[in-house]
Amino acid sequence: MERQRRWDEDERFTGVSDAAAMLPAVRRLDEMLRTVGWVTEEPEAHLLPHLRRVPGWEVLGERLLDDGFYEVRARPEEELEGIDVQRAVIRLLSVIAEPSFFVRQAGGDVYDCVTGVMPGDPPGIFKSHGHLVRVIVVTEQE
User: Fold this and answer.
1) How many CB atoms lie within 10 A of CB 114?
2) Would you state the pLDDT for residue 140?
3) pLDDT grade for 141, boundaries at 50, 70 and 90
């Protein structure tokens, strides 16, 4: 049975540790995700102005979905492929990042993000709240 590499030059086929050290923070985020009212209102007022100012991106449209996701369709100004798309999306989303920030490629050109403030997070001046953002990367002209 051939062992599957984790990347193109992987010779170890295994890592150095598990990620259990992050479990307390992930569990806290999980708790916040389940808290009714944690996702804030009016993302078009709080998030959109920041996203529109990110160099290298054009926001083509946005809407708030029933499940709380703020869906943003955006086109990069340069042609990107592979991991460079994901890295560019993370740079786009970083302008709205708060102390907790999680991004995953949900499929194809769709990236889901949760970012927020959990109780006790620095600087401690805001009540716990969060945002769900879905970025759909558009590569063709609309």
Assistant:
1) 21
2) 78
3) low
Residue 56, sorted as left (phi over 0), alpha (psi -120 to 50) or beta, turns out to be: left
Is the Cα dihedral 44, 58, 139, 92 positive or negative? negative
Residues of the chain above pLDDT 70, percent: 94
Residue 96, SS3 per DSSP: helix
The candidate with the shortest Cα–Cα distance to 52, out of 12, 96, 18, is: 96
Burial of 43 (0-12, 13-18, 19+ CB in 10 A): buried
pTM of the full structure? 0.89
Give the amino acid at 83: I
Give the Cα separation of 117 and 127 in Å (integer).
7
